[in-house]
Write a structure and sequence with these properties.
Helix 5 runs parallel beside helix 8. It is built from 18 helices and no strands. With about 400 residues, it is mainly α. It is about 65% helix and about 0% strand.
Length: about 400
């Protein structure tokens, strides 16, 4: 049975309205329906929208931002790449949004949503790097080497999680016991789980956008107080002004999007596919196996450690079939891993160091060619298998 203080706190909280959560839900749904209409309302695009449609409705593309289209820091918060993307994010907003809006009030909630969403897009923008830049495992978690359309509300959603996380810690001494378990440290398992999912789906999910939103929400919660039970519902004029400014920024951004709606689509995204032929889950499993294989190759070549290969090779064999090119890429990296094992074989160890180094150099060269082909597949054909899930469609914001 909950204690009396928890019941009193919950009752005071639940009686507060959450109209802006509903408005945001409706706005995201409305934008999605417009995107579907622009795709001739074909049911095939419910799996994934084409690159040109995403760009036309305001998805983030670094090259266009650099060309002066600043509003693409704002509009991606309301754009989703497919139906599943929309449903997952809107369900999360329906669960998390009312808590933040009831605790802080509608004006602060709107400001939180817009600012943390922008922070997520900015983080995504800053983490697109040159394809020549070497990336380790952590680097591939945060950085992207392709400037692909990015969109989604997940940066703002992580921002709301950041708000509730800091709220629970900051006000832990005045919260009833039941709420201490729901907020603050109680949110750690969910945060860690989502980061783990992001790590597994690195290269697909826009982890930088998620972390940018999370950090922005945490910082805002550190600086802002909440409406305690029994307080009057009056809103400080400064928050009313900030709410109006945030909504005006969103409105102006979409006006700019409408003005540039028929601009020529950049060649880099003009040919992105419309249909998706495999499930997003298959694509995630495939990419996870390929990521493990790359890390196993590094371990074998740089550290003579074959243990990662022992699990990576069977996982490659069990990865789903996506298309013929994906299958050939999978077999190539599998053969490279098998060949790394011969370097440490007894008959090879008897050779001199120069011969071993030459064999490694040959493998590294062939791996470089494979990596280039694999990245090109991710950038082109890979997208039709789910490579635009943002949460990111970088390839979740």
């Amino acid at each position: 049975m909950p204690d009396r203080e928890t019941v009193r706190f919950a009752r005071a909280l639940m009686e507060r309205p959450y109209k802006f959560t509903i408005i945001l839900l409706a706005t995201n749904l409305f934008v999605y329906m417009l995107m579907w209409q622009s795709s001739a309302m074909r049911f095939s695009v419910l799996g994934i929208f084409s690159g040109p449609v995403l760009v036309a409705y305001g998805a983030k593309l670094n090259s266009l931002v650099q060309a002066g289209q600043w509003w693409r820091f704002v509009t991606p918060i309301f754009v989703h790449v497919n139906l599943l993307h929309l449903l997952v994010n809107m369900y999360s907003l329906w669960i998390i949004g009312p808590y933040v809006e009831k605790l802080y009030g509608g004006s602060k909630f709107v400001v939180f949503w817009v600012l943390t969403g922008i922070a997520g897009v900015v983080a995504s923008y800053l983490t697109v790097v040159s394809p020549d830049r070497p990336l380790g495992s952590l680097g591939r978690f945060l950085f992207k080497i392709h400037d692909d359309p990015s969109a989604g509300a997940s940066g703002a959603l992580f921002g709301l999680v950041g708000v509730l996380f800091v709220f629970g810690i900051k006000f832990r001494h005045e919260l009833p016991e039941g709420f201490k378990r729901a907020f603050g440290i109680g949110l750690l398992p969910m945060i860690v789980l989502n980061l783990f999912i992001g790590y597994v789906g690195r290269g697909i999910i826009d982890n930088a956008a998620h972390l940018g939103g999370l950090a922005a929400g945490a910082l805002l919660a550190l600086a802002v107080d909440y409406r305690r039970p029994g307080e009057r519902s009056g809103v400080a004029i400064v928050w009313q002004v900030l709410r109006a400014a945030a909504l005006a920024l969103v409105a102006v951004s979409f006006v700019q999007t409408a003005r540039h709606f028929r601009d020529p689509t950049p060649a880099s995204v003009a040919s992105l596919p419309i249909q998706i032929t495999t499930t997003a889950h298959d694509f995630v499993v495939y990419v996870k196996a390929m990521n493990e294989a790359q890390e196993a190759f590094y371990a074998a070549i740089q550290e003579d450690d074959l243990k990662p290969s022992a699990s990576a090779i069977p996982n490659l064999s069990n990865a789903p079939y996506l298309d013929q090119e994906a299958h050939e890429l999978r077999e190539t990296i599998r053969n490279l891993l098998l060949e790394t094992a011969t370097i440490n074989a007894p008959e090879t160890a008897a050779n001199n160091a120069e011969d071993i180094n030459q064999k490694k150099a040959n493998l590294i060269q062939r791996f470089g060619v494979w990596a280039k082909d694999y990245n090109e597949w991710l950038k082109t054909a890979g997208k039709k298998h789910g490579g635009l899930i943002e949460v990111a469609p970088e390839k979740s914001q």
